[in-house]
Specification:
29% of the residues lie in helices and 23% in strands. The chain is α/β, with parallel strands linked by helices.
Length: 256
């Protein structure tokens, strides 16, 4: 018995801490296999609505929806809004001062600026989700990040302070968040992130996912197909949504 205890203690000392810590975040991506079955991305928003319903039935805790949905596209918008009432859903926005007619940002999703606040990004316009979807959303959070060693935590949109998508995701997971270092950012190291365990949306659609992989988790629902934007990073050339996931997992593991 003493030998077994000694062996387990030795393993705990040798292995990195994050090898033992299971992330609450699970990426579900529209990938090449999904596009082979459902056709090329993007899809009618009923596809996203059906996916959210499937995640809810599998016991997901919440969703980070990694698509910009700022332009109306028919009946699928209403279906998506209805599906978003099944569980907490975070929508993403971004700054873009060239946007001539941004959707209004719901006042409940931001706070007044104070003199103590420091902002990673400041803008007066952007890609803001459809008002109908904002009403069903748990939050709308901003993702404005070059691939670097610092992630934005707090941004300024018009005269309001808004959280980054990283902060909102961590708060949904009930993880401690130190809002900002200098400049409204937080240091992050992609190399510290654990390996991504990605689920293909097609496996969710086909009912091939074990409930245990989803239950109690927060789904990061994004795109990783042939048209995905690619970036050179410290861990290689990876797609935009893999960059987000790697940063998020690194923040989750070292952000306590």
């Amino acid at each position: 018995m003493r030998a077994l205890v000694w062996f387990l203690s030795l393993i705990c000392l040798v292995l990195p801490a994050h090898s033992w810590a299971e992330s609450v975040f699970v990426p579900v991506f529209i990938d090449a296999r999904t596009e082979a079955k459902l056709g090329p991305f993007p899809y009618d928003r009923t596809v996203y609505a059906d996916a959210l319903i499937a995640f809810e039935k599998l016991g997901a805790k919440g969703i980070v929806l990694k698509f910009f949905i700022d332009q109306p596209k028919g009946n699928g918008d209403e279906a998506l809004a209805a599906a978003m009432t099944k569980l907490p859903v975070i929508l993403q926005a971004r700054c873009d001062d060239t946007e001539a007619n941004p959707n209004p940002l719901d006042a409940r999703l931001s706070v007044p600026v104070t003199i103590q606040m420091k902002f990673a990004v400041t803008c007066s316009a952007g890609w803001i989700p459809l008002p109908r979807l904002q009403k069903s959303a748990a939050n709308v959070c901003f993702i404005d990040q070059a691939v670097a060693d610092a992630a934005p935590m707090l941004e300024r949109y018009q005269n309001r302070a808004v959280k980054s998508l990283y902060v909102c995701a961590l708060e949904l997971a009930r993880k401690p968040v130190r809002v900002a270092d200098a400049g409204g950012t937080r240091k992050v190291g992609l190399a510290k992130a654990p390996r991504l365990d990605v689920i293909s949306l097609v496996d969710v659609v086909d009912g091939k996912i074990d409930r245990a992989r989803i239950a109690g988790k927060i789904i990061v629902f994004g795109y990783d197909g042939a048209k995905a934007s690619m970036f050179d990073t410290a861990i290689g050339r990876i797609s935009a949504h893999r960059v987000f996931m790697a940063n998020l997992l690194a923040l989750e593991m070292v952000g306590k």
